[in-house]
Design goal:
Radius of gyration: 22 Å
CATH superfamily of the largest domain: L,D-transpeptidase catalytic domain-like
Structural class: alpha+beta
Number of helices: 7
Order of helices and strands: HHEEEEEEEHEEHEHHEEEEHEE
Shape: globular
Largest sheet: 5 strands, mixed
Distance between the termini: 57 Å
Helix content: 25-40%
């Protein structure tokens, strides 16, 4: 009889413990930054909610995250290995070419996808004004988790969680959108010379202007598009509007002191720590394409979601649906 009375009590205790455990599960998009990342931020004098800036380098398989400090300039936080990307060096041209994009992109909170079929993701915003001027097409070009890519940059689930959290905290701190420079390689003169006969060379010379502007100032350059070109750090006479496919209005170079700064930094460029996740072995663009082709049969479009920020809570940064995204 005693056992009969105890058994229901045990069931209640087990169920209560199970429910308590479930209530403590944090969804991936609300996970806090890992302790190691928080320690590195503190070491470098960076705030968790400071604005961010990203650079992607295809050939090097690297994604860099930079953070603003109190002087408004951006300083290197960490370099993350890209698990895989698809296609070869050069821009994306059309839907279905399985090419990861190159160019200058701006990511707002509504492009963050906490329900990606690749764990977490953010949309680069392809095609941008430059891409549209060349009638380039493509949808759902993402930076996401996992290690599969059809036109995207795949970071693994563990790394996208940290990158996503950095973006989430920057939005919570007031940043409206962060810039991403998606580049074929580090655009040094030596590398440019190495690729001088490549079909994309003239396009890359245009991208190099934005790369060099950031290298020189540690400020994300102001980007406009006119005459089917990226125009870097330009001040247009009388604030004339630009049209990506039309001739450029008259402009002068924007003085460094007038380049928009983050509302916050003081420290010379520090050492560049890398993510603790081992970097995959370097591969050629051809082998990258082969890897992508082998994985495409297992990749689908999944469900569509869209997100924009609402006020952050103690649980982390929340999102609500207001547009359509995939992957």
């Amino acid at each position: 009889m005693g056992h009969t009375k105890i058994f229901p009590v045990l069931i209640v205790i087990v169920v209560a413990a199970f429910l308590a455990g479930c209530s403590q599960v944090v969804p991936p998009h609300l996970l806090p930054l890992p302790p190691e990342a928080k320690a590195l931020l503190a070491q470098k004098g960076m705030r968790e909610d400071a604005p961010i800036f990203m650079r992607i380098f295809k050939e090097e398989n690297e994604l860099e995250v930079w953070k603003a400090k109190d002087d408004g300039r951006f300083y290197h936080f960490k370099t993350y290995p890209i698990c895989t990307w698809s296609g070869g060096l050069g821009p994306k041209f059309m839907e279905g070419d399985k090419q990861s994009p190159e160019g200058f992109y701006k990511v707002s909170a509504k492009l963050m996808n906490p329900k990606s079929q690749y764990h977490l993701s953010f949309n680069l915003g392809f095609p941008n004004a430059y891409d549209k001027a060349y009638n380039r097409t493509g949808t759902f070009l993402m930076v996401h988790g996992d290690c599969k890519s059809v036109g995207c940059y795949a970071m693994t689930d563990a790394l996208i969680e940290e990158i996503y959290a950095l973006a989430r905290e920057a939005f919570a701190g007031g940043q409206e959108a962060f810039d991403v420079q998606a580049l074929p390689f580090r655009m040094t003169q030596a590398n440019m010379k190495r690729f001088r006969r490549h079909d994309a060379y003239n396009f890359w010379r245009n991208l190099q202007q934005g790369y060099k502007a950031f290298e020189a100032t540690q400020l994300p350059p102001k980007i406009d598009v006119c005459a089917r070109r990226y125009i870097v750090n330009a001040k247009f006479v009388n604030g004339a509007p630009t049209n990506a496919s039309a001739a450029c209005p008259k402009y002068e170079r924007l003085p460094v002191e007038d380049i928009p700064r983050a509302p916050m930094f003081q420290e010379a460029r520090a050492d560049m720590p890398r993510s603790s996740v081992p970097k995959p072995p370097a591969t050629s663009a051809a082998s990258q394409a082969a890897t992508s082709a082998a994985s495409q049969a297992t990749i689908g479009n999944g469900s569509t979601f869209g997100f924009a920020p609402v006020k952050p809570s103690v649980a982390g940064f929340a999102f609500r649906t207001n547009s359509r995204l995939s992957r």
